[in-house]
Batch of 2 targets.
Target 1
Amino acid sequence: MIDADKKPLPQHVDAVVIGGGTAGCAAAMHLANAGKRVVLFEQRLAGAQASGQNYGGVRQQGRCPEELPISFRARRIWDRLPEIVGHDCGFRPSGHIKLARTAEEFAGLEAWAEMARGFGLNVAILSGNVLRAEHNYLGSWVYGGSYCATDGHANPRLVGPLFARAAERAGVDLRECCPVAKLERDGAGFRVSLADGRSTRADVAINTAGAWGADIAAQLGETYDEHVLSPNMIVTEPAAPIFAASFGVCGGDIYFRQTPRGNVLFGGGRGISDKSRLWARPLATVSVQAAAKMIGFIPAVAHLAVIRSWSGIDGSMPDDRPVLGPSPSVPGLFHAFGFSGHGFQLGPAVGEVLADLVLAGHTETDISGLSPLRFTPSTIGAA
Amino acid sequence: MSAPAIVIVGAGPAGVRAAEVLAGAGLRPILLDEGDRCGGQIYRQPPDPRKRPYAKLYGTEAERARALHETFSRIAPEIDYRPRTLVWDVAGGQVMVHAGGGVGRIPYSHLLLATGATDRTLPLPGWTLPGVYTLGGAQIALKAQDCLIGKRVAFVGTGPLLYLVAVQYARAGAEVAAVIDSGTRAAQVANALGLLAQPKVALRGLGFVAELKRRGVPVLKGAIPEAIEQTADGLAVKLGARRFACDAVGLGYGLRAETQLADLAGVPRRFDAAQQTWVPESGADGRTPAAGVYVAGDGAGILGADAAELRGARAAFALLEDLGKPVDAAKTKTLEAGIARWARFRAAIDGMFPVPAAALAALPDDAVVCRCERITVADIRRVAALAKPEDVNRLKAFGRAGMGRCQGRFCGENAQAILAAITGAAPSALGAHRAQAPIKPIPLDDMTRVAPNTDPIVEEAAQ
């Protein structure tokens, strides 16, 4: 709910969530469902930045091993969106094909498949000839690929906002257009203040602030080297179905899917942004290059008209992995930010994991490789 | 200092008058226009203008049209005119264009946007049926193609254009089935005094109404049809118990400014309560809060074609002032006084022919609001209940209204009014659709080729 009439904040809550993306809204919802009093502050609108402006890939394939356990947990949640948020959010388990342009890239796909098998995930390795026989719309650029049948794609414009509404129904006091001015320690808990002087106390603080995650952490003395990542996204007019699977390419410079409505949606390269004023724009240079690549992979789209392009603001970490877990230096503070351009699929599970950590003190999902500890060794002793 | 690179977008009344002033000051503006020939929509020219006389093409506006076209012919050698050129993005001091099957960029130091207006529709059930045109579209068929949209045509909407087009059709030999105006007689009487700001124009308008009546055309005021229906032999406009049989409908509830490029150029927009739409922030001199960006003509807010000529000239003088060139203060004062007169006249027109907001709020569930994505009133109501969109951009994100080829140019205001009625919010609190490049569709493969006479957007794309 937009905080237009500046209604008073609760004096004290069990948990405050900072950042209304999918992860923050899901975490808030689960905590409220467990009987906790939760207030969530979103600086503008829930699900409007990285959660809402991304490509919409629901993919396990291609992730680093550290992300796979939580990605598997997320994948199970995606099937249950109708019961959780009341809508399927356009999720289609269409499969995901990762394409290689060269023998070297193809070897990389084989190595990844081998690794993933160790985690119990099977992907099929397909030669260029087999791929083109089964997917005759693919152009000559394709050397080979790998196929993960359980991956798919969804509509990012719905997921975050619908988790926000579900959180509100669960009893979360969700405040949109409410940027947090200050987060500080207050006894054993926290005090969160807004620019207009209103404040609330909380036993637990959850930092799901996306590209602003490091800024929130910095208020409590932790330093993270987070950078802004703004994807350059393009969509064409709707067309009859050409392809069902979602596609990625080794190197990540182009990715594409066709929406249930028929629009061919593709991304590649980076737009520009100014996170201080929540402003992001695609770049014509990047769009033109992406258009050429798109046609290279699927020549049949050449005649379609581009109708729109956009960008958003995500946070990225130096090793392209999110920061997820308890703060190394501040008890009661939990981080989940810096999803580095591939957090959309993870969001619903990140919310569950955060709720596990708050409610039970641990989670069954192995998130050790995403721990904040890998970036802030110097602050551990200080805590 | 290098010579200023001035780009004007739009070769209608405002753009041509701006080019005239700049060329007169010894500058050589680049004039980009989507059309084949200059004139904009109002003074649009047929493919071969010699075939039909001005009086027949433009009627009462013949002299103005001729003057504008002749001015253009005179200055053409002094400017860099590029027809059939769509500007689809503005960023980093450059406009991106689509022309000749390719794309390219043109750097500018000053940008003057004279992007004009489009019809505002009311999404009555049936408005997307074949045979239903906007009033502007019906007029263009007549001017540019020398043809009528039908033999027996009903005109539905409000505003001066409603009567003008009906008269033009009657004179061109169409049978006008009815003119159905949502404006009430009471509102028209109450605001009539303001018309004295332009008495000649007002008299001409009254003359149109009288001529229609003389021709036996039913003219209904304060009336909004419930639907346009398909019948065995054409269409019918349903109004209470009456059915006006026709084979085509001209539909238009006033005009709305084309503001996408201003938005991309960083010009903030403000809500114009009288016209119930968003317009770029600008002074009477055409200056905007964005440095080096000027707006003129109906794209800066609807004041009409005559005012557009004055606004184009005034904005060009502002541009010259900003370049440090000498400008005759008496001239700019006269222009501003003229613009102010048109603004007073327009306030009266807006009062006489208001946007039928109540009708928008009362549309039935099955009315199609967004025709690109086929989003109905019921869809908007469902999305509003489930996802609670805070503004029109969220309504678009959640429910696709405004997400199609036209980017909400034809449904934005209507979706906004419907959402306002559902939520109780003021329309002005519901934002304006963000413009997104490309503002009009561009074929994907054209994006990989370079438009003639432009810099490549990507250097490698030059081959």
Note: Chain B touches chain A at residues 89, 91, 96, 103, 105, 373, 386-388, 390, 394, 397-398, 400, 403-405, 407, 436-438, 441-445, 447-448, 457-458, 460-461 (CB under 8 Å).
Target 2
Amino acid sequence: MSLTTILMTVFSTTFVYAAPLIFTALGGTFSERSGVVNVGLEGMMIIGAFGSTVFNLTFASTFGSLTPWISLFIGALFGLVFSLLHAVATVTFRADHIISGTVLNLMAPALAVFLTRVLYEGKGQTPVINQSMGNFTFPLLSKIPFIGKVLFTHTSLIAFIAIIVGILCWYFFFRTSLGLRMRSVGENPMAADILGINVVKYKYMGVLISGFMGGIGGAVMAQSITLNFSASTISGQGFMSLAAMIFGKWNPLGATGAALFFGLAQSLPIIGVYIPLLSHVNTVWFQIAPYAITIIVLVIFLGKAVAPAADGENYIKGK
Amino acid sequence: MHTKSLKGLTIPLISVLAGFIVGAILMLIFGYDPIQNYQNLLKGSLGGIYSIGETLRNMISLILTALGFAVASKAGFFNIGGPGQYLIGWFGAIVFTLKFSHLPAVILIIGALLCGALAGGLWSMIAGVLRAYFGTSEVITTIMLNYIILYLVNFAVKSWLASKGSDSSPNITTKANLNTPFLQHITDNSTFNWGFFIALAVVGLVWFYFKKTKSGFEIQAVGLNESASQYAGVNVKRTIIIAMLISGLLAGLGGAIDGLGNFENISVSNNLPNVGYNGMAVALLAAGNPIGIIFSALLFSALQIGGLSISVYSNTPSEIVDIVIASIIFFVGIKYAFELMTKKGWLKRKNKVVKGGAEK
């Protein structure tokens, strides 16, 4: 294989695996920046993957090649509705955030597989979708010598969109007043409340957006990688996204970068065989790398002082 | 008065009831018969000697992983590492049994269980050390450690224990099996095994540890107020590490017993064992009370075992029981909602009495 082809494969597989993580990790930043810890990202992805797959299978003949893209939106809506559980529990009923998040992770696979069996004659997995997200070649950019071939040929369009969304999220949090308010709710809800910011509203917004994005993440996973839905469609990607969010210091750009890096780690076992230096490394090290790196980063660089100050605390008015 | 009674059995009982109602509603929506299914569930879990044996066996790992979670939460920590600690305990016990199969049965079993428990404890202790010395959130580290151990165990099973091309280790020698012919004989060939009595004994030990020992008291003190304990002379760092160590030991023991008594080997798996998460659910329902954990484990175990027969006797998907379990924990989690409701209900009742008095 030539260097260009190797690099093209490395980048495109990295992008394919990173895209679901980027969306979900960005979702995580919304929830946690508004002060609600979200260990339920995995569950939100599962519901998104389920919703999108069912939609895709049902409407593939109606919408043709547009189906996967509409499915993303449907998956996002499923995730949003599901995340309402977390929002109601944590914001309105003062539940412990970790317990509520755990409930999402227990509930999602149970509910999704239950419904799958209801819809598909008792089978625990859906049929394979016909309209999936194929690869994409950018019309003009791919003509650029070398870079065009490496980055913009046969690549994952949704990953590029994900990166752009990541930049937009950063802009939202650090350049708009709405974003500033949301951050203030996660840092010091009482001060925000005194300044007239509706704490409950922003917390709901944060959690629901995380459900929306987590749903997209799950949908991307189902529409571009697994191509059907079963209990094992989402196996740890939600937790890996959580890791990416932390590794990225609760910053959308950091989370995007970390998710790309984890995407690379996930793609290395697949493409490593073609790369002379890596072909001797056992795949297990690539598999554990994202998780191990997250722990190391937390220990060495971060400590506990980087999360939003009031992350995980319930705000009780007048206390 | 009311808040005090709420802290007791009210919340768990309401939550369980509400969970079952959610399950029933869901079944009604999709055209399944809830009453029939709940009857089948009861029959499948407690309706005969065999099913009782299965339900009790399934309780073992639920009890132990729940105790593990409860010990950590007494110290104020959320140990989500149960699935990983259970897995490494299972792995440790199988490795020990395979490598020392020439030892006499009793020593082999004790060694394997200790090896599994210790593996779980040490794995969990990593999170404890990081928490104690670097302040790293144990929630995150235990989640990450879960996935690290999943892949490491898969790797070790595939490249070390399993024969070439296979995804499972060989079976352990029969003399190490906790599910002895005698127990099979009296329980209609169920998988009920001696581990059940070990689990019950451990419940007693944990209860004793928290009620009667200094170390157990220190763990609770740290859980209530870290700085106050520090001023009172408790070595907080050491206590954190001990709490996480014990927590992992218990989950690891659960894995070890399941390994010897139920699975008899270990295979490559794509997912973390669910029992670790279900153990959390058991502990949350029991609010960390060791005795409560026995009953809560019985309930969830019966749901799981009975759930299997739901899909045998009807076309209802057995996942319905997992939905019920998740709902129960959801209701336990939002106990504030019940407190609100009782408060309002209580006020209403009081008003009524006053009104009634006025009318007379």
Note: Chain A has one domain: 3-302.
